[in-house]
Amino acid sequence: MDRQILAKLNALRQGRQAAILVTDLSGGPDRLVVEGDVLEGTLADAAASAFRSGKSSAVDFEGRSFFLNVHLPPPRIVVIGAVHISQVLARMAAHAGFDITIIDPRTAFATPERFEGVDLIADWPVDALKERPLDSYMALVAVTHDPKIDDEPILQALLTGCFYVGALGSRKTHAGRLERLRREGLTEADLARIHAPIGLAIGAASPAEIAVAILAEIISSLRGRDVSLPKGAKP
């Protein structure tokens, strides 16, 4: 691999930006495609599919064969609220291949005993996210029912372009949330990106069932996201 391409690829990986190393199997030069680059034809379709699935594969393009080696940032779920749903979601997310972080300033809930082995931050989200900012390969799940805790990370997630933003609460609760976020300057298009009520509509009732619905919706959003947008752009 060309040293300049390798250096750029390493920089992209360090910055949690998705890229595909396109290798010409007939011996031509390698090419690096970054998520959001404008492509055409068969290569565009193959690259979009690879970015969504994360799977490397060979593809024929203009009479030649290429290998698409996909490099995706590890997807991360950031949960605001150390509640019962979060306990189940943390275990399931790990099995599904997601890194997960739980943030909650309420130290009675955010305890190592309740979240053994989980990346747990017992601090206000606004402070925690200054140290560990959100990005487009993160899903934001807000489940505290407390606007003082949930609203700011939801706002940040929408402005950052997180691939998924979900919030727990009734329709009445969500209507109030939307009004508060409008006052912060968010557009209707921004607000439409919030999944609320959170999770796929499977009739979930218990914390475990709600966690299943949330994780399924996160996976659906990750695999179906618009990969034509550059990193950090809002869908």
What characterizes the major β-sheet?
6 strands, parallel
For the termini, the CA-CA separation is 33 Å
Percent in strands? 15-25%
**What is the CATH class designation of the largest domain?**
Alpha Beta
Name of the CATH architecture of the largest domain = 3-Layer(aba) Sandwich
The chain-level structural class is alpha/beta
By DSSP (H or I, 4+ residues per run), the number of helices equals 8
Number of structural domains: 2
Helix-strand pattern: HEEHEEEHEEHEHEHHEH
Overall form? elongated
Spatial strand sequence of the major β-sheet? 7-6-5-8-9-10
Rg, rounded, reads: 19 Å
Describe it for me?
- The protein has 235 residues and is α/β, with parallel strands linked by helices.
- It has 2 domains: 3-71, no CATH class; 76-223, 3-Layer(aba) Sandwich (Rossmann fold).
- Helix content is 39%, strand content 20%.
- It has 8 helices and 10 strands.
- The protein has helices at residues 3-14, 41-53, 84-95, 125-131, 147-160, 171-183, 188-191, 207-223; strands at 19-24, 31-34, 57-61, 64-71, 76-80, 99-103, 119-121, 138-142, 164-167, 194-195.
- The strands form 2 sheets. Strands 7-6-5-8-9-10 form a 6-stranded parallel sheet, with helices on both faces. A 4-stranded antiparallel sheet has the order 2-1-4-3, sandwiched between helices.
- The longest helix has 17 residues, at 207-223.
- The chain is elongated.
- The protein starts with a helix and ends in a 12-residue tail after the last helix.
